[in-house]
Design goal:
With about 220 residues, the protein is mainly alpha-helical. It is flat, with a radius of gyration of 20 Å. The protein is built from nine helices and no strands.
Length: about 220
């Protein structure tokens, strides 16, 4: 039997590779047209590009290995694959943190609105695919089915888990926007980029709702 048909994660790896290609292309385009030219912003833009290139290369190598049974047996289903997935998740988390930050002018503008939909949404999709990859690896190597365990505990437990995750994301995003445009990090920003009273109140409301969703 070929490796591509026996590997339960081949589809995830192909999806991850495609998402990395689209994200890399969108990032290059966003970097070329960004208006954020400060040294700090350019440094973070370079970090994001480096992370994306690493994600692209690693995912491409693993996809190629799936088509080479003799080589894939040394990686697929082993601790090496688990380490690779963990590294990819780490880099993708760092990439998402940079491109979604309003100070870096990549996927969002100074007001927090999405300025590059491909980069923003495909970055989140890549992180989600990476999490699915890790869950699939844990299930196949250690026999722990996290999704099934959540479903067996209670009918609505998995929905509560998702609510907590989304609450943490909302809380973190709102807190970063508030800090960038209303808090100490906003010192030195042009007046046009300073958050007005309405904007800052909405950020505070987002933080409160996020905390409420995550805790309760």
């Amino acid at each position: 039997m070929s490796t591509t048909s026996s590997s339960p994660r081949f589809g995830y790896w192909v999806c991850f590779f495609i998402l990395s290609v689209v994200t890399l292309g969108a990032l290059i385009e966003a970097k070329a047209h960004t208006e954020r030219l400060s040294p700090a912003a350019q440094t973070n833009q370079k970090y994001a590009l480096a992370c994306c290139v690493i994600l692209f290369l690693l995912s491409m190598i693993v996809v190629i290995l799936h088509t080479r049974p003799l080589l894939s047996s040394a990686i697929l289903g082993t601790k090496i694959e688990g380490i690779v997935i963990l590294v990819l998740l780490s880099f993708w988390t760092a990439l998402l943190a940079i491109v979604s930050d309003t100070r870096h002018g990549l996927a969002t503008d100074s007001s927090g609105s999405i300025s590059n939909g491909n980069l923003y949404y495909f970055s989140w999709a890549g992180l989600g695919t990476g999490i699915l990859l890790m869950l699939s690896y844990i299930r196949s190597v250690w026999g722990i089915d996290v999704t099934a365990e959540l479903q067996s505990r209670a009918k609505r437990l998995q929905y509560w888990v998702w609510l907590v995750i989304f609450g943490l994301i909302q809380m973190g995003s709102s807190a970063r926007l508030f800090d960038n445009h209303c808090g100490r990090a906003s010192y030195g920003l042009p007046e046009a980029e300073m958050g007005n009273v309405k904007f800052c109140r909405r950020c505070k409301m987002g933080i409160v709702f996020g905390v409420f969703s995550a805790v309760f």
